[in-house]
Predict the structure.
Amino acid sequence: MFGFGKKSDFPTSKLIPLIVKLGEFLKEGYEHKKNHPLALDAETLSVFIDLRMKEWNPELGGKKLLDPDTKTAAARFVAGIACNMLKKEES
């Protein structure tokens, strides 16, 4: 009824390295923001993370997963999370 237990061809286990790497970029962004709290908003931090992602080109089955727009969006997503994590700590 709700799709629980359904078989899927979605490659969950193959995406784990991608998720781990995004976590590493999150950690870098978090630490960078923590060391420069007043100078960095999420947009500025995303530029830093996007630069750190420059050489990262994950593939799955020979297909590149990140085009430039998607990589920039991923950097913004990770930067937003880092900023929000630090907001909660400051409260």
